Amino acid sequence: MNLRQLQQCTKNILLCFNNSRAIQIREISNTKCLRRSLEPVLEQNKSSSKEVLTHFEFHGQWPAEEQQLFIKDLRLHTDFITNEEETKLLEEIEPYMKRLHYEYDHWDDAIHGFRETERKQWYPHNRAVLERVRQTAFDGAIMPYVHILDLAAEGVIKPHVDSTRYCGNTIAGISLLSDCVMRLVRVDERKYLQGKAVEAPEVASTSAQNTADANDAYRNRPETTLENNFYVDVLLRRRSLYIMSHSSRYNFTHEILGNDVSQFQGQRVKKDRRISIICRNDP
Fold first, then answer.
1. How far apart are CA 86 and CA 210, in angstroms?
2. Cα–Cα dist 48/248, whole Å
3. How many CA atoms lie within 13 A of 216 on its CB side?
């Protein structure tokens, strides 16, 4: 190899190195830009940037302001309770839950493969956990009865919005026994706003529509479409706490995906039997 060939070879090696370095810098820059765009809203709520980046999968074209508002109003705390605390909660609720049968024909058609109850009195160590939920998720008091929802491995929760007649602007749930994926889909505000059904301007009313009260149902089930072209999948880890309030509470349906479609960032998430302990504030 002569001198000219050696110089050209060296130049090519340096060029490849620089291109590779530029790609790495660009990827790092993109990640930093995403973090910077989320910093203002993450600073205002208790979800860390790591939890948002690793547990929220946004789909479609989200308006920037709406995405930031959603992150502010949907908070997630992984490992909110310890293994021991999970065991203590299960020890208290399992004896009663085992006496119930799983139901597959719910009166509002929102849940299949479930059993549920409410509980007011708790052992002191479990009451301490619920008090921690109250301090973390709510500004004031919570409703005295805590909702316990036991979902079978093959069970699903269909898209719905909890009625404002039965709970206020915040819902907080602890996930026991299993990971799962919760999907939140933006609903058409012309038809559904702040938990109350409203008629789209171009749709003529009927007598049935005029007499129907959407809030008679504990869980309102507006027609869910992807016409807004954006939704989000949230990975709810076992022993995590999710806090759904304001815009995420009213403007999105939420559902627990069944095992036939349950995946997150391209990886299957197998949902086994799952119990959620749900606290709410007054309407």
1. 46
2. 18
3. 5
Task: State pLDDT tens for residues 21-44.
Answer: 544 444 444 444 444 444 444 444
Please write down the long-range contacts of 130-137, taking CB distance under 8 Å and 24 or more positions apart. Answer: 130/277, 130/279, 132/80, 133/80, 133/172, 133/174, 133/241, 133/279, 134/279, 136/46, 136/77, 136/80, 136/172, 136/241, 136/243, 137/75, 137/170, 137/172, 137/241, 137/243, 137/245, 137/279
Contact (Cβ atoms closer than 8 angstroms) between residue 161 and residue 244: no
Rounded Cα gap, residues 29 and 35, in angstroms: 10
Residue 136, judged by CB atoms within 10 A of its CB (0-12, 13-18, 19+), counts as middle
Q: Look up tokens 């930031």; give the residue.
A: 68
User: Could you tell me what percent of the chain has a pLDDT over 90?
Assistant: 54
Residue pair 219/116 in contact (Cβ under 8 Å)? The answer is no
Distance CA 233, CA 49 (A): 16
Calpha distance 87→177 (Å, rounded): 10
**Contact (CB, 8 A) for 227 and 135:** no
Distance CA 46, CA 225 (A): 30
Task: Please tell me the distance from the alpha carbon of residue 154 to that of residue 145, in angstroms, as a whole number.
Answer: 27
CB 185 within 8 A of CB 253: yes
Q: What is the mean pLDDT of the chain?
A: 78
- Which residues on adjacent β-strands are paired with residue 118? 147
How many other CB atoms are there within 10 angstroms of residue 146's CB atom?
22
Q: Compute how many other C-beta atoms are within 10 angstroms of the C-beta atom of residue 244.
A: 25
Do β-strands 263-264 and 74-77 pair in parallel, antiparallel, or remain unpaired?
A: unpaired
